[in-house]
Design a protein that fits this description.
The complex is a heterodimer of chains A (301) and B (300). Chain A is mainly α and 301 residues long. Chain A has helices at residues 2-11, 13-34, 49-52, 59-66, 68-88, 90-100, 106-116, 123-133, 139-146, 158-186, 190-198, 203-227, 235-241, 247-250, 253-263, 267-294; strands at 42-43, 54-55. Chain A has 16 helices and two strands. Chain B contains 14 helices and no strands. The chains are: A mainly alpha (301), B mainly alpha (300).
Chain lengths: 301, 300
Amino acid sequence: MIKEYIKDIKKNKVKYLIVLPVLIYLFVFNYRSMYGIVVAFQDYRPRRGIAGSEWVGFENFIRFFKDPYFYRVFRNTLSISFTTLIFAFPAPIILALMLNEVKDGIFKRCVQTITYLPHFIALVIICGMVMQFTMTNGLITNILVFFGMERQNMLLNKDFFYPIYIISGIWASIGWDSIIYLAALSSVDQEQYEAARVDGASRLKQIWHITLPGILPVVSMKLILRMGHIVSVGREKILLLYNANTQEIAEVISTYNYRKGLLDADFSYSTAVGLFDTLINLLFLLLSNKLAKKMGQSGLF
Amino acid sequence: MNIKRKKRRKKSIEDWILDIIIYSILIFLAFVCFYPLWYVVVASFSSSRYIASQGAFLVWPEEFSLKAYEFAFQDADIMRGFKNSILIEILSLPINIVLTMLCGYFLASTGMKLKKPIVAYIMFTMFFSGGLVPAYLNIKSLGLYDTIWALVLPGALSVYNAIICKTAIEGIPESLPESAFIDGASDWQILWKIILPLIKPTAAVLVLYYGVSHWNAWFNASIYLKSTSDLKPAQLVLRYIMIKGGMIEDVTGGVDAEFSLYADTIQYAAIVIITIPILCVYPFLQKHFAKGVMIGAVKG
């Protein structure tokens, strides 16, 4: 048996050598850091290091299960994730459907070029613009005051956080995310449209019976993958936008993790929360992948 | 019946209404996507007095002034941030491309007994990680804290991008490497002389993806650098300017009263300066969008 493996290594020497740097890199930066997870089971003190810190078993996990703030954070994570899903998921699909109804030409290309652009603008810049425009005297504030809103600094108002977060997210990604749907739409058989037109079907009927079914596979695939990340909300944008006033509804697992772990230096607790978060994420990912396979899609693995 | 007759179906009222609705919404969307960016550019060329007093709808610079740019170009932090970001790009991109291609090549190769476990080893990192604190501890223990390498090395390999590379390599017709193999070429020669030249478009897409990602990054820099660090990349400098009200680095080391007066417009000028490289690269991105994103899309 061993002989076979030695033969294989000799025969594919180059290929194994080629992947070796990759494996070393992943070891140093990914696997080596996984060792740090052990900190979740300790009362980690930086001065004593991992080896010198006391083992406390599941104490840190019990701590956050007992922590009411943690539940609020978890609830916020799900809230933001679901609300984003409801509003931000359909947006690029609708854009793709509309663009598909426009014939190819300068107008179409212009709209595409312009709507793709926000995707490349740095998050720091987008949040900076959001802050400027929603200040007491900001551009967006002024527009809304014209429509009857009370003049205020919008980012300090809890009720505005979700809309600002989601709408700025849609602004940044609607164009780029529509590319995949457009690609799927362009592969729909044009003859079907011809046949429908001959049969006298109206535009709307054509969209309903031909276009929509055409992107259904891509949409369902993306939806299922998105569900796999339902318990995950990125920390960067929230960090850039939230403040003491909105923290109550804006703090999510990843930002809580960051604050507790790196700012408060509560390493063990934060690592425990992080581990829990990773496992829950993995669970949802596996479930959604199973669902994808059940529905006939290829899934991720 | 004349099947090949050129179809000129009369547009019904419904068609016209649909068109009007669709075109209106698209124009509105394009405007909304474009205007905030335009506003930033226009405001950066306006006087800060006007911006502070009105904050209203801008179409063209009001009270044209280059003061903001004067300040921005003289600000040591902003210029240093720009230089640091360029340095990060120069250091990262070769590493990114090499690692990604090596990984993609292996993932696309066949006929190796150890392939399954190695692929599992690679793919596992996509779904599981130590988390924030362990990553931080890892970087510290490697002695990379507060060095440029802490901004270059973590995340240097995106397995997702490697999969895009794999898909591209798999798109090469089997016959090419095969006939080379029959002619006696080694795996190494096949990689260099046949495969790499054929996936140049994919390499271009990867450069653009990684390039943009590095240029826009700030979070790793915020945790792996000391707050007094000179290595802050552009976006982190921008963040400090925006959130902390930014203090210009004066020779005397004090708060610059003039700066606070111009703070708004200086921010806008800084944004424009730092975004220019992205805008320069954008036209090239355009060409590769459809192809590159499609390849990525195949894998969801």
